[in-house]
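This part of the workshop introduces the protein records we will be handling. Getting from the letters to the tokens is the skill we practise here. The record below serves as our worked example for the rest of this section.

…
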Amino acid sequence: MVIRYKKLENKYENKLALYINLMMIIDIIRRCFNLFDLTFVYDTEVQAILYIYLFTSMFIRKYQDSKKLLNVIIAGLLSVGLFLYGLIMEPQVSSIFVISLLNYFTLVFGTCILVKEIKNTKVFIDCSTKYIYFCLLYSVVVILTQSKQVFSPYSMTFSFNCFFPLGLSLILGFFGKKRINIAYAIIILAVNMAIGSRSIVIYTVMIVGGIYLYLSRNKYYVLKLILGIFTIYFVFDYKKITSWVGTYLLQFFPTSRTIELLSNGKIFVLSGREVYFDIIEKSLKNNPFAIHGLLTDRIIIGNSIGHTTYITEYPHNIFLEVFYQHGIILGLLFFIVLLLIVVKSIIVAIKQRDGGKWDIALFIIVVSFAVSQLLVSNSYIISISFGLLIGTSLCLINHGKEWSF
């Protein structure tokens, strides 16, 4: 009876964990069809239906309060208004308007307002743990099917879907002292080194750094020593070390894009993104105060390089994207507000003493996720990492209000 009650009590957190990992589950299903040379042509429809179902059921449960509901409606209408402004300013936005709007409201807006309502962070983390095992399965399926993919042997989507489970593995390995999870994290990272995006390496380093900053208060001298030695060698001779490591690893992963870049000393090369940066930077220099609107950056980049799909032609850097879309003044205001929210949530989590341990753990994951994606790999208006960052920050601030009473 107690177990049944606990399951019912955690129903919201279980659904939210599925919501955040839904893209991974859908890709597992699609790739399982590939194993038998079958095509799963309804993945987009299934994904949309599940998002609608999960969002609606969680939204109804958490937003019955009229004040909360009004705030969400206002935020939603404001978001639509910003998208419409971009469409008015640049009619070519119409070709990507609907899909971008849907991605924003499911991946960013939906994630933000649902994560914001987490009452017990540890319960949510416990409910998310199962997706570490899904991610291990995912890694096996990807190894078996990647050669059949259009962009073989490299998959950024695979890495993006692994971010949250990988971070959770590391957090549980150190914060929860479940050492087997460190082994799981190593396996997931190794497969990503062979097949995925190098941004997940940056993410892993940030996660470990965040864990170190927290645990160093408790005098983890061995961890300090290892990280200290690594830092000294990396700072003073990183090119030699990365080249040696990359050359060695190529023996085991000869087709890995990430390891090849590592061995050639080009791990920090932007792989064509500098062209996007240059286009946006020139436009900002010409008119830094212009408010172009959402999605307009896709159009100027696409037209400049001769691409007309536009959907993936964003700057791959949140600073350039925001400053181009909203102008320097509104852009600075955007980042000031974002920084204030993040800093306040950190202060609140620290003040909660031991009760804030898992708040800090989740915060390490989402900050690392957002930084490693939004600075070099994705767009803030279609990335679940941005929704997680804002939602978690607001969630921790809410926890602080409850704790203060």
Remarks:
- Confidence is low (pLDDT under 50) at residues 1-5.
- The chain is about 75% helix and 0% strand.
- The radius of gyration is 22 Å.
